[in-house]
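Slide 14.
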Amino acid sequence: MRTMLAALLGIALVAASAPAFAHVVEVTTAVSLADVEDQETLTAAIRAAVNEAMESAVGFKPTLIALTRANVIGERLYVRLLMADAEGEEMLRDLAPDGPPSGTDDGAPAEHTYSKQPI
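Slide 15: predicted structure.
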């Protein structure tokens, strides 16, 4: 009898709890470098590409946008962005190792950094 009661209580707890929905997406976008003449033009082009990716590629309002990789191939700059909502941001914080990344052994910066700075 006690076993059955404990099992029913466990099932009731599992059924009553709702899972948290976290959204985490990695998006790749590209910027043409053919028309870029200076730093301001490049910054404006990257901002436009990020805004377009936010509007067309994700179905949520990101609270975190992190640049995870940038490659130049030919006349195009390919930018990889990690986007997350508030729950996804908390999940990433829980998954990240203690402390900020310190970089690699060769002095190059670490590939992944998570910050809450506007783009």
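Speaker note: The two ends are 60 Å apart (CA to CA).
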